Amino acid sequence: MSKVKIGTVQMSCVADKQENLNKAIEKIKEAAAKGAQIVCLQELFTSLYFCDVEDYDNFDLAEPIPGPSTEALSPVAKELGVVIIASLFEKRTEGLYHNTTAVIDADGTYLGKYRKMHIPDDPAFYEKFYFTPGDLGYKIFKTKFGKVGVLICWDQWYPEASRITALMGADIMFYPTAIGWATDQDEETNQDQYNAWQTIQRSHSVANGVPVVSVNRVGFEQNGAMKFWGGSFVTNAQGKLLYLGSHDQEEVAVTEVDLSQTDYMRKHWPFLRDRRIETYSPITKRFIDED
């Protein structure tokens, strides 16, 4: 299959977990009705972005994976014949939690999960309080509509993560994400931040010759202090924008991506071929100095 239709669900969330799940299911159905074959939801779509505070009560939002949310989504995937990429707060065992994305195939089969590797700890993004770094390594999932690579939000800043995922054979890379602007910032700072976010992900597409899909939430949260900036997008294998979401509206979009472009791009811009892998061992150092 050379062409695949990608559904992106950019939405705002509320405090009620079941309400968010129900809303996401309705939007998955909307995407499928528009022809989507793979539907990606935003990071931690069943809740508000709770990592703005360090609050032990928020651990109650977590669930096992597979678990209630995947059990709700699997029949939807089967009924609609779509692959679903679902970012969830995973409770692995007592006191051990991950930021995790589950992948459900178009026949409803749970294919597995990817646990977020890079965990931020910034003002209003206190994820290290909640999430243990992933220990499953980088992953691809062989779905009905292609080999899907999944990374999560903070992973998006690291070319090493995207490179490894591409080298594992991903046909397309997905980034469920949750990022926004502090509402007291000036507009120039806002645009600089968004442009950096989009640019780094588009560069993964260019460097690896694969399409990239980034799905972000919208809406004001944190008592109005944070405006999640939406701006979800889809690129082709050369980093060209095929779809760009708004900064303030919920959107269900379907974008056709031609996976055969990867072979063409890698032949004509042979970045993978020209990699000098024998020179790369220093990348495993924290910093290259005398220590």
Brief summary of the model shown:
It comes from Chryseobacterium cheonjiense. The chain has 291 residues and is an alpha/beta fold.
Radius of gyration (CA) equals 18 Å
Order of helices and strands: EHEHEEEEEHEEHEEEEEEH
Main sheet makeup: 6 strands, mixed
The CATH homology group name: Carbon-nitrogen hydrolase
Could you explain the architecture of this structure?
There is one protein chain. With 291 residues, this protein is an alpha/beta fold. It has one domain: Carbon-nitrogen hydrolase (Nitrilase/N-carbamoyl-D-aminoacid amidohydrolase). 24% of the residues lie in helices and 29% in strands. The chain contains five helices and 15 strands. The chain has a six-stranded mixed beta sheet with strand order 5-4-3-2-1-15. Strand 7 (146-150), helix 3 and strand 8 form a beta-alpha-beta unit. Helix 1 (17-33) runs parallel beside helix 2 (68-80) and helix 3 runs parallel beside helix 4 (187-208). It is globular. The relative contact order is 0.16. GO terms for molecular function: N-carbamoylputrescine amidase activity.
